[in-house]
Fold:
Amino acid sequence: MQSMSAPQRFSTETKAQTCFRRLRTRTGLAFCLFTLCFCLRALAWGPHGEITQAALDALGPDDALLKHLGTNARKLVHYCWMGDYRRTPYERQGEFFYADDYLLFPGMERHLDHLVPEVKRTYEPYFRRALQALRTETPLNAARWIGSLLHFVEDTGSPPHSTEIRGDVHSKMENWVDAKLIHLPGYRPQLLGETEEKALAGFLRRMDGLIASSKERGDRCRPLVLADKRAEVEPIVLESALETSRVVADLLHTLGKLHPKPPYRNNSIRGTVFAEGRPLRATHGGPVRVLLLGTTHSTLADSDGRFVLAGLDEGDYKMSFLHFTLLPGITNVSTAREFDSLAWWPFFSTKVEPANLVRNPAFAANWLGKNLPDAWYPTKTAWEGDLIPLKQGARYTLRLNWQNKPGDGDVVLRFRPNTHPGLPVVDSAPFKPGTNEHAFTGSDKMKWAQILIRTTNAPTTLLKSVAITAEK
Ligand SMILES: [Zn+2]
Structure:
């Protein structure tokens, strides 16, 4: 919700850090837990889930999208938060995956701001990608991609997002609303267009209307927030939440009408990823990610290592897996063979180091873009790896396989007690070429580890590969 623009990020971090420091003193514990919750919640527009639920309720049980998504449809009330999980794992009710797997793709290589005007650049790419997922991926995968799209639509409808207000007024304005009142009785979702292009044009027009209506309300609310008149702000923000929910209902209804009826099995590539003779099950790092190189196709396998991409353009593809492989593991696949039975699953074996917790450890998978190794996010100063969950008391070893003639730079291990980006972190001393191993232990304050490769050049100018392994 709340965008992490530089000034805002600074102010929220300061608040969260104060809370965290207070957490350490026993006397202030109860107060601090309350304050910490407030700090974290205050970063985001509260009613994402309610806006999505009201839209789902408006669709009616026979809606094509609800039928296609099945039991996954109700997960949209959680997946609509996807955008705010950027750079962190999505962990909820037994699900664990990296949110960036549903936020970044060729054409959308970097995270965008969630406020107008930049958020407008998300609409078309995420609309097309969600529709692509409905046409080519499992309903579970499609629901997650739709969740990403919904996040940006719903953020736009938040008055301070449309009005481009940041800071304290932003947080207050978007949270001064009674989410229980968000319902759309009698609303009949509108079809935004009969073809993909017409629907996209209709969707963009609908978003222009949403921005105009929420901006008008944001302008009206600003002096009221500054004067602390919460009772007067709440009904105005509620109007924006209701209009946002109507847009979401229209969008979901339209997506359901556009995608072809299941089962859509032609031109499919399906299989099971095997490692060491057994299906590669989801582990600490989540399910295996399947990538078709040179395309926008990617998907997550299920917890038994099974995956499917269907409704592809006919032809040959190069497939890679984003997991813990030290080799690129590129497999040639083709849609030439029609699979008409789900019982026939080809098996793809891949060389995996099951003990390694680092995804794409040799930087070999570059699906997102040229010189953009997947699962390594470039910042101004470093390539940041995924957040890796650590077990309390377990011992780990970081292994650095340096280039023979490494370029400028070093490696830092960053530890977090929590995945929230605003909370304080602990950095190791930098590791320079020559240091090949470093042992550490998971603890209360070190629940998550992240590798930072600090160079402005490609990570491969420094390292051949990296690994974090747990001691058995
Ligand atoms: Zn957001």
Residues 377-470 form a domain with the Jelly Rolls fold (CATH 2.60.120). Residues 1-42, 338-344 have pLDDT under 50 and may be disordered. The first strand starts at residue 89 and ends at 92.
